[in-house]
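Anyone opening a protein record will find just a pair of labelled lines. With that in mind, the following record should read easily:
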Amino acid sequence: MSQQVRAAVFRPDDDRIERAVELLDSLGATPVPDPMLAIEPTGATPEAGEFVVLTSKTGVELLAADGWEPGDAVLCCIGPATADAARDAGWTVDRVPDEYTSAGLVEHLAPDVDGATVEVARSDHGSPVLTDGLRDAGADVHETVLYRLVRPEGAGKSAELAAAGDLEAALFTSSLTVEHFLDAAAERGIREEAIAGLNDAVVGAIGPPTRDTAASHGIDVTVVPDEATFEALAVAAVETAAPTYHE
C-alpha cells in the first residue's frame, strides 16, 4: 500500500505546507512536513515599468497587503498559482507563459519587450535566467527584491530520516529547498548519508532547474512532472514510489 510512502515536503510553513500535507494524505502517503523556506519581507515595492513580472504567490500577497497596484503596466505572472493570487488581489493578469519557468517566461515575452522597461519583482534567490534573458531580448530590466528566503531554525528532520533509510520520497519545489536540505544535513554531520538515503528513494523535482541543482550535488532525481505544480509533482512521486512498497 502507498500508505508506507513517507514523503518529505519542504514548502514554507503557511497554507502551502498545510495544502501539501492534505494532498499527500489524500494520495495515501505519509507526509513528512519539513519547511525549508521562511519568508522575510523587505518592504520594497516595484518601480514603474511597461511590463511588471511577478514570479510567486508570496510576492503577490506581500504587494497586495502593501496596497500596491499594477496600474497600466502589462502584468506578467510566471504560472497559474501566481496568476490566481494576482486575480484574487483584484488585478488583471495579462500574460502567463505556457511553460511555468523563467526560461518559459523569457520565451513568452521576448518578442514584445525590445526597448521596453520591464520590472521584475521577486525573492532574493530569483534565477538570472529571467533577467538576463529579458535583457538579451532588448528590454531595460530593473529588479526589486520583495522578500528574502531563509532556512527556518530547526529544519532538517527529513534529512535525519533520509540518512536512516526511513524516507521513500522527497519533493523538492525549488533549487533553494535542495540547498537548505543539504545545509541542514551538513549541520547534523549526515550530509553524505542523507544524499545516499535520497538516492535509495524517489526524488521529485518540480522542474529542470531544481533537478539540475539536485544533480549537481549528487542527488539522483527520479521524477520531474510535465507541469511545474506541486500537485503534479506529488502525484507523480507518490505513484512512482508506491509500487515499490506493495506487499
In short: DSSP finds ten helices and nine strands in the chain. The longest strand covers residues 140-150. The chain has two domains: 4-36+150-239, 38-147. The CA atoms of residues 57 and 82 lie 4 Å apart.
